[in-house]
Structures are given as C-alpha cells and as structure tokens.
Amino acid sequence: MEKRKPLFFSARYFIHDFVRIAAFLPGFLWWRPKHLYENENARKKIKGGTLLISNHVWFTDPIFLMYGIWYRRLHFVALKVLFNTPAKNFWFRHFLCIPIDRENVSMETFRKIVGLLKDDEVVAMFPEGKINGGNDGLQAFRSGMILMAMQSRKPIRPVYIRKKKGVRYRLLIVVGEEMKFPEGGMDLNEISRATDELFEREKKLQEIAERYYGPSAD
C-alpha cells in the first residue's frame, strides 16, 4: 500500500505549512480564485509526481499556483539570483524553491528536480523563463521541461494564470489535462515537437480564460 505523505504540519515543512495556512483565507478573499478546466480529464486531482508548468505574468504566480493546486505541496523552480542574500535564501528554500541558473542549468539542479518527481512530489516551473509582462501573449517555451519529464517518467500538467484586472474581477486558474511521454525516450525533433505541443495547449488554456472574461477585460 502506498504510504501517504502528510499535507500539513510535517516537521520538515513546518514553516512552509504554517505560513501557507495562515495566509490562505486573506488571499482567498482578495483574489477570489476561480478554477476552470480544459476538459473533464483536467478535473482529476494530481496524484504522484508531476511537473506543473504555467505562464509567468507576475512575481506572485507561485502563490496563484498554490491556490490552483491547493491540495499538494509545490516545489518551485526559481532563478538563482533570487537567493542572493541570507534572508532570501532562508525564505525561498523554506518555501520549497529550487535555485536554477537560467543560462546554464547544472546537472545537480537537473538531478534534484528529477529526484523530486521520482519521489512523487509536484515541481512547478515557468517554461517561458521570465515574467512576460502581462496576460497578453505567451513567450516561447524552453525544452528542458520535456527532458525532466522523460528522465523521471512523470507527466506534465499545464496551467494558465490570468491575474485580477480590477477589484470586480477574480483570479482565473485554468487547469489542463496532463501530457505523458513515451518511456523509450524521444529524439531532438520529437522533443521540439512536444515543446511546441505544450505551447499550443497553453494557448488553448489562455483562450478558455479569455472566453470567461474577454481579452479586453481590465
């Protein structure tokens, strides 16, 4: 029988869990998150190791994802430069962030992410590589996520975030269906096509958000 990991108040995650629970209600009342789904399969809760990917519209996106996937702890891939002071390093690591050099991803970082996925954790990353400056448009995805999913033999679940535009609007979190990859691996062309497919699926999630409020909502 699979051993279930405690969701709240594990000694290892005490600071993370305490702050997360304490901040949940105020954030929920302010952002009023609304969940939308690509299809019925996308409604299924994430079980086991999964690589969660999302567009990147604001520095609060990790918080938005925690409201979207509230029932799992999320390990976030974050830029190494954010860990540049002892205080930042303390808080980012206690909030399960994994430092990464965007221009030169080390094998140590790659192995850590793959190891977490193999341990049935959820790792969240933003394949655009940087904040895209708003809700309008997506920037090209990087292929590293495909390699991580292949190596760990875990699926990728796309999510689209549309932040609030004004008090009367709600935070939208659009959850897509998971994408699995062949166990035998893929060549470079197949990896490129899989990256493009995930990008197109992310655009479809964006279209769902735009149909809900309309692209010009502010």
**How large a portion of the residues is in β-strands, by DSSP E?**
15-25%
Number of strands: 7
Rg, rounded, reads 17 Å
- Average pLDDT, rounded to a whole number, is 87
Would you give an account of this structure?
This protein is of the alpha/beta class and 218 residues long. 38% of the residues lie in helices and 16% in strands. It has six helices and seven strands, in the order H-E-E-H-E-H-E-H-E-H-E-E-H. It has helices at 14-31, 61-68, 86-94, 107-118, 144-152, 188-213, and strands spanning 34-37, 50-54, 74-79, 97-100, 122-125, 156-162, 172-175. It has a seven-stranded mixed sheet, with helices on both faces. The model has no long low-confidence stretch (mean pLDDT 87).
What's the SSE blueprint?
Layout: H1 14-31, E1 34-37, E2 50-54, H2 61-68, E3 74-79, H3 86-94, E4 97-100, H4 107-118, E5 122-125, H5 144-152, E6 156-162, E7 172-175, H6 188-213
Parallel strand pairs: 1-7, 2-5, 2-6, 3-4, 3-5
Antiparallel strand pairs: 6-7
Provide a concise account of the structure shown.
With 218 residues, the chain is an alpha/beta fold. It is 38% helix and 16% strand.
